[in-house]
Amino acid sequence: MVFIKRSFSQIFIIMLSSTGVCGLLFSNQREAAFASLRMYESVGFCVSAAYAQFICMAIKMSITGGLLLVAVFGYFLMEHFQRNEKCAMKLAPKYV
Q1: Is residue 24 part of a domain?
Q2: What is the DSSP letter of 16?
Q3: Within this chain, do residues 38 and 69 fall inside the same structural domain, yes or no?
Q4: For the chain, which terminus, N or C, has the lower number of CB atoms within 10 Å?
Q5: Which domain holds residue 71?
């Protein structure tokens, strides 16, 4: 029972942090960003439920680990581009 409680709390924390990052990145278009986030989240749940009975656990863990690596790489890539964009805005000449 304790394991199930911890799992749900960790999932809740991950969902909150992804919502926060989405809100920070797309501050101009928050409604569209949150709608897109929830849609892709639902698609992920549906796809994982669809192949749950047909694939063994080792393959599921490999798929999940691969997607996690892609997500982490994408996050760091996005952070890099955001930092470069902010630096370019500071260095750009200001016209009055």
Answers
A1: yes
A2: H
A3: no
A4: C
A5: 55-89
